[in-house]
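ok so i was messing around last nite and threw this chain in just to see what happens. nothing serious, just curious
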Amino acid sequence: MIAETVCSAVSAAGLGIAGVTAYRRRFLSAARVAAYALVPIGLVMTGVVGWLADNALSPTAWAGFGVLGMSWALFAGTRAVERRRGGTRAERRAAARGAGADAAAPAASAPSLGPGRRSAAGSGEDFSDIEAILKKHGI
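result:
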């Protein structure tokens, strides 16, 4: 009963603030405040507040929240250890297999660069276009 009264008062106050905001010609903000103000009364009307009020004083519900917290801590802890080790066991095995294949044939995984352009001298690359650009700019 008290929770429903508090939620109704919060909604009424929020709608009053929305009215003042609309009076100041800030209609978008007023609509947003009104939307937030209607949430508590909507929760009362659906029965969620009564359900929460009944469970807030229940030791079984608090024990359940404790179990959920421990479960979350275990998930987070195992994920942190997994990240430090470099993934799951299956991921580490796949990485070890992949590294062994690369070590056996390193030239096979190297990209082919092709023959490329050679200058008339045949020893270096052709920089004539770069030289022309530099000469054009006076460098």
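not much to say yet. The chain has a mean pLDDT of 81.
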